[in-house]
Amino acid sequence: MQNSVTLIAKNFSIIRWLALQNNLVNWYWQVDVNSDEFILNLSNDIQFPTLFSRQQLLTTSQKHIPFTTEDAVVYSRFRELLALTKLNPQAQFSIAVNATAVHNYLGAYATKSWLFETIGNPGFYFESGDIVETESKSIGYYLVIDTDELTSTIMLLSEQQQIDTNRVFNQGQVIRVHNDRLEKKSNIESLAL
């Protein structure tokens, strides 16, 4: 019981610290009126365009969407996990921001499992933050963003993955597939991304 209370208090302290940091940095999301890109504003003169557009968002009614405490928790969790990989810091930041956008603001993706070979157990359940492998014409490593008992929304961590002779996915590509197309990787620090 003591450990549970300590863990809850520690998590509350982290969330409170993230909320304080969020208020100090004043990050916010917006849709660029010229390009329709979903952008994270880091300061008055620094904007980070995500890989997504207005049409992919669940809602576009607000001009500015605050970077919430929930955003900060999700971003920090993905960023800490990605720090264990061989990705450079710029790729870690980009993937963590884009994964946060997918997790909290994007609509559902259609399942496209036929693009990948069956390599896993259909009953295996993944967790958000898992690193998984897929197989098609080449192997790709993905970050699990959202998941349920049958499917997972994943984002490509590998620089590229050859899907077939005519199609290549680039780093940051998001897709939803059945869980039997995924295999969890535990040795993430040694993966060649």
Automatic annotation (TrEMBL):
Highest rank taxon of the organism: Bacteria
Domain (Cell-division protein ZapC C-terminal): residue spans on this chain: 111-184
Segments forming domain Cell-division protein ZapC N-terminal: 26-106
Signal peptide (from-to): none
Protein name: Cell division protein ZapC
Organism encoding this protein: Psychrosphaera saromensis
Lineage, uppermost ranks: Bacteria, Pseudomonadati, Pseudomonadota, Gammaproteobacteria, Alteromonadales
